[in-house]
Amino acid sequence: MSFARLRRLRRTPALRALVRETQLSVDDLIYPLFVVEGENIKEEVPSMPGVYHFSLDRLDEEVGEAVHLGLKAVILFGVPRHKDEVGSEAYAEDGIVQRATRRIKEQYPDLVVIADTCLCQYTSHGHCGVVENGEVLNDPSLELLVKTAVSQAAAGADVIAPSNMMDGFVHAIRKGLDEAGYTHVPILSYAVKYASAFYGPFRDAAHSAPQFGDRKTYQMDPANAREALREARADVEQGADLLMVKPALAYLDIIRLLKEHFDLPVAAYNVSGEYSMVKAAAANGWIDERAVVMELLTGIKRAGADLILTYFAKDVARWLKGGE
């Protein structure tokens, strides 16, 4: 009896490696960092074991380790000391992200610094824009987001990553960057950002939980897929250079949709809730953390992601080098 013997190519580790279809590389990874005001601060986020708040003077050691491990890019999230109704610290020349960007670029000029461009962690109400009578206003919010993006580019950010999900944000930011002379700075658009339950630990880390209501009027309904194509297409037409899907694990089909429909690089955000679930299960001895993380990130890559934002970036870089 003749039949296909697919096990022939699985017989040894060398054979399996030879025919492996999806390769996860350190070059695929972007490492998120939380920067806070103050001095000598390295404080673990309670809901995200192994993830820390860093003051500027302690940021150097973390970035240095990331560079040593071969990571090529970080994305910065700032946690300001003062908040107000319009998130003015987001676009201040001496804002926490602006200062962190300058510091990193001075010491590691070849490291790609991506600036998250949003207002939620800077506003007293915790929403991603200007609020009036309980409503998040779209167009007035765009004006502040443009100011934020330009200030981040002026500080030396290599990439602007707007995560606010206001309509027209890519067009507004592209126009603002170009007019300010930053035509060379690309936009990594959070093109498809769902109103997800997986963001809880991040909101703990960034102190960005909304103080009233939720973000469902501007972030996407998790039930929708065709809408993701409309969102991404709008951003492509407005000048986005890269597209992001957030979160990753519950939206692998969306990553694949974007990969098939657009010719821009696709990024996926392996978000805080995804990270913390793995950490909790590993801490209880229920899973092999290394094996699970590598399987999950390989799955994200296989779905079509060219880039993966993940809090596991340093661990994965170490594992890929053969370390523990």
TrEMBL record:
EC number, as in UniProt: 4.2.1.24
A Gene Ontology biological process term: protoporphyrinogen IX biosynthetic process
Amino acids binding 5-aminolevulinate 2: S272, Y311
List of residues binding Mg(2+): E231
Keywords: Heme biosynthesis, Lyase, Magnesium, Metal-binding, Porphyrin biosynthesis, Zinc
Pathway involvement of the protein, from the record: Porphyrin-containing compound metabolism; protoporphyrin-IX biosynthesis; coproporphyrinogen-III from 5-aminolevulinate: step 1/4
MF terms (GO), sorted A to Z: porphobilinogen synthase activity; zinc ion binding
Binding sites annotated in the UniProt record for 5-aminolevulinate 1: R203, R215
Catalytic activity as recorded in UniProt: 2 5-aminolevulinate = porphobilinogen + 2 H2O + H(+)
Cofactor: Zn(2+)
Active site feature: K193 (schiff-base intermediate with substrate), K246 (schiff-base intermediate with substrate)
Binding site for Zn(2+): C118, C120, C128
Gene3D superfamilies to which the protein is assigned, alphabetical: Aldolase class I
One of the record's GO cellular component terms: cytosol
SMART domains reported in the protein's UniProt record: ALAD
Entry-linked CDD domains: ALAD_PBGS
Protein's job: Catalyzes an early step in the biosynthesis of tetrapyrroles. Binds two molecules of 5-aminolevulinate per subunit, each at a distinct site, and catalyzes their condensation to form porphobilinogen.
Family listed: Belongs to the ALAD family.
Quaternary structure, from the entry: Homooctamer.
The protein's name: Delta-aminolevulinic acid dehydratase
Originating species: Calditerricola satsumensis
